Amino acid sequence: MKTSTVLSAIAVALSITVCTQTAQADTRDAMCEVRKDGDKQQGKSGHCTFGQRQGYIDIDLKNGDTVALSPGNKANHFRDQRGNKVVRTQSGGNFQSFKWENGKHINVTLNAPTYNHNKHQQPGYNQQGGYNQDGVGSEHPWAADGGASGGGSYDGAPPQIIMGTNGEGEVIFNNNCVVYYDKRGRRTSSLPACSSKQLNRAADAMAAYRREQGMN
Hints:
By secondary structure, the chain is of the alpha+beta class. The chain folds into two domains: 27-110, no CATH class; 125-212, no CATH class. The chain has helices spanning 3-25, 196-212; strands at residues 27-36, 39-40, 46-53, 56-60, 66-71, 77-79, 85-92, 95-100, 104-110, 125-126, 130-131, 160-163, 169-172, 178-181, 187-190. It is globular and about 45 Å long. It starts with a helix and ends with a helix.
């Protein structure tokens, strides 16, 4: 066997190993409840795995089916692998809920918390993935005015922070601006609706969150 052939085979093997390890690192065990028109689908409901990377979500169900969601042009809006519209109707702590136009629902409950939310927890932080208005002031200047003067969310609400299972995160504003961050807290991309002021506020929000969770 030629040396070049041997080296190519080794490279392919290493690539497969790296990809496998990455996939494992990006997923978390969970419990999924799958419903169609209100009826629970027993064969699909039960133990599952949930993975999230830069807005893309994969849910491997009990029966072997995989739901692959790609981010849309609005916050919490996705398309599945068949092109169907999906909306994330709930997210916070270790729970997320997804709704399809055809009446399908998937509720995902992670088996273990992604982070210790009690560590470095500050007044005003809630475990639903964001900050409320009470207690947010000089400690969090990015949210002190509720976004009213920062070019941010139009209803005056502070941005919501959602952390992925692999340490990546999203900062979501109510005007469909979503800013994505890698596991080191560096911005990787954002939706077109984001203004420059929102990008700055998102950076401050993510930095504050990472400090409070002891991630820096």
